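HOLO CASE FILE
Compound: arginine
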Amino acid sequence: MSKKAWGGRFETQPEAWVDAFNASIHFDHVLLDEDIEGSIAHATMLSNQNIISSEECQDIIKGLKSIQKDYHKNNITFSESLEDIHLNIEHELIKRIGKVGGKLHTARSRNDQIATDMHLYTKKAVQHLIKSIHSFQASIINISNQHIDTIMPGYTHLQRAQPISLAHHLMTYFWMLERDKSRFKDALKRIDISPLGAAALSGTTYPIDRHETKRLLGFQDIYENSLDAVSDRDYIIETLHIINLCMIHLSRFAEEIIFWSSEEAQFITLSDAFSTGSSIMPQKKNPDMAELIRGKVGRTTGHLVSLLMTLKGLPLAYNKDLQEDKEGLFDAVHTLKGALRIFEGMIKTMTVNKETLYHTVRQDFSNATELADYLVGKNIPFREAHEVVGKVVLWAIQNDYYLLDIPLTIYQSFHPSIETDIYTYLEPQEAVKRRQSDGGTSQTAVQKQINKAQALLNEES
Ligand code: ARG
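Model generated. Tokens follow.
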């Protein structure tokens, strides 16, 4: 068992199983780079402020860098009795450079240290996620560009409603993701703040320069209140919320992919590379990736609720409860990164079954609104037209017809102003073409929307 950094006032030490419960090293070791980055900035500032000598600072930095190198070569063994990443690194540093390593913790506490690590980690993770979303959106635009003329049924209540283009449908997800990205960017304002120098809770008696460590670490600002600096986890809750909302968006898309690829719909065929088989039913090709993405919302929601509950009623300032902020965030970041990557690959390799879509959209009543609009064009009030079309649809269902197949004589028995041009008018592609209102499904409106979306992506890169 290693000697505790805080062992001075203790007569006995916890047993190994108690240490194991207390320890976070098995998950916070992933913060090693951030911890070392924070320590190098802290040591540099201590030296510039003449709190430690520049030779001591150089020794410390050299020691930290050698630890970092060995960590990435898998050459470091961490100890549970040293609790967390901070005390493990400090122990290793003193082992490597001697007593001077003990000067690194001057004017610092693990409380501002872990807060700094988490701010650095969250900032990097959010910047990565913004890039992944951008890439996914670019793929959505690409695929949409190929399907401005691909007509499919648009649904409400999962009942066929009106024909739309596949591009129009897919682009909806572009805009959801655009809002997620904008939320992440906004959250960065609150993530990009340095808590370093708050020390345990009240600041420090040493003449430190918090603005220098802020600058060295690339943060935009510092926390104005040292208690707030060490106890704030709002930015993690916010990040978890955005991750979760983005996962919820992906789960909606996943659900569509699952339905579209079903035997019942056959709108798309997923690539073998993004599907799996069954161990008993040889014919099966399952959309497991989409199902997993849908399913993983359970865990990201869990992580968000878990941290909300951890923070509820927690008094100022640091409490060990806050150690519970990490695993959920790490897992949520990992989950969304994976989901975005998989989803992008899945839609880039799927085949759209245009023929099936073409036939599907002809075998429904989703052109019923067109018939009503046609009558409105003949100066019949919409309510009256709606009533007439309702009767036509009822007749068609009872007599096994679709609107495009009903003979003109029958139409005229429902309303004399229906003429032969009705058949072109009812064509699904004509219905789509007519919806030219901004944001509508016509080719021109969808092209306009895609251009706007592309311009937004161009501005970013
Ligand atoms: N492992 C701890 C955490 O993640 C680091 C801070 C410990 N601070 C303390 N006063 N025990 O929260």
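CASE NOTES: The longest strand covers residues 159-165. The two ends are 51 Å apart (CA to CA).
CLOSED: yes
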